[in-house]
Amino acid sequence: MSQHIEDSPVTFRLAVFGDPIEQSKSPQIHQMFAEQTGVQITYQKIKGEVDSFTDQLAEFFRHEDAMGVNVTMPFKEQAAAWADTRSISVEQASAANTLIKTSSGIIAETTDGKGLVSDLLRNNMHINGKTLLLIGAGGAARGAISALLDENPKHIYITNRSPANAQRLVDIANDKRVSSISEGDCAKQTFDLIINATSLSLQGNVPNIPDAVFNTQPNVYDMVYQSEDTSFVRKAKSLGCNNAIDGLGMLVGQAAESFYLWFGLRPNPEPVLAMLRKELSGS
């Protein structure tokens, strides 16, 4: 990636695979990154097929100018298994959202955690030395845990509707700074930052944790986003948490990290995030 890709006459081929895929903002985001950095790209949305997904990947990467792909639900686990090499974060999460073509094969990476951390820090939600509550133990939480630990938190408590799944993520993390906690017991701890890694807000629901966890006005982050505040962000704000935001910045942050992995160039996420926020609000 040390070559001057921005000076290359090649138009690099990129894509995002998922199902559903129509709503994906990835082509828009990466086209803006490409314009910023002077890279020539094409970026497709491709509907993945469960029975032939790996064949679709193989076909895409047969193109000489194919540089990489993003992968969204429900194909992240298959993408991780298919790649020639997996990062430590991918091994932990058993899922990949980014594939990179190199001279030695396809590398699987997950940029979700770094996208989350970059957005948290951008919004003054500090992690170093802080106590975190991570709600959820599915793919989003698995993808985040390694990057959160890299920021040296004091402790991360994981709560989940299924205590067994929370404990499974604790075992995956394999770090003394990570432990599970029941939903009811969350009120017995004080948190500096609460992260909702469930998709409940997409249905207008909220995790079943006590209102008392918001009493100390922690920073609050919801990994999903909508045109207005999510149900979890609304609840946190109604209980006095002024610094509560959704996950749109995480979307842009993880895309910026993918772009860097492909091209060795760091785009500026700020104008892209501003454009998407404006689009979402309809203004």
From TrEMBL:
Known pathway: Metabolic intermediate biosynthesis; chorismate biosynthesis; chorismate from D-erythrose 4-phosphate and phosphoenolpyruvate: step 4/7
Which residues are named in the active-site annotation? 76 (proton acceptor)
Coiled-coil annotation reads none
Q: Name one GO molecular function term.
A: NADP binding
Annotated SDH C-terminal domain residues: 247-273
Q: State a single Pfam family of this protein.
A: SDH_C
List the catalytic activities from the record.
shikimate + NADP(+) = 3-dehydroshikimate + NADPH + H(+)
User: What positions does the entry give for shikimate binding?
Assistant: 24-26, 72, 97, 112, 225, 254
Binding residue positions for NADP(+): 136-140, 223, 247
| Span of domain Quinate/shikimate 5-dehydrogenase/glutamyl-tRNA reductase | 126-199
User: Any one Gene Ontology biological process term?
Assistant: chorismate biosynthetic process
Enzyme class of the recorded protein, top EC level? oxidoreductase
Q: Which residues form the Shikimate dehydrogenase substrate binding N-terminal domain?
A: 16-99
Gene3D superfamilies reported in the protein's UniProt record: Leucine Dehydrogenase, chain A, domain 1, NAD(P)-binding Rossmann-like Domain
Annotated EC: 1.1.1.25
Alphabetical UniProt keywords: Amino-acid biosynthesis, Aromatic amino acid biosynthesis, NADP, Oxidoreductase
- Per its database record, what is this protein's job? Involved in the biosynthesis of the chorismate, which leads to the biosynthesis of aromatic amino acids. Catalyzes the reversible NADPH linked reduction of 3-dehydroshikimate (DHSA) to yield shikimate (SA).
Question: Subunit details for this protein?
Answer: Homodimer.
As for family, the record states:
Belongs to the shikimate dehydrogenase family.
* Name by which UniProt lists this protein: Shikimate dehydrogenase (NADP(+))
Organism of this sequence: Brumicola blandensis
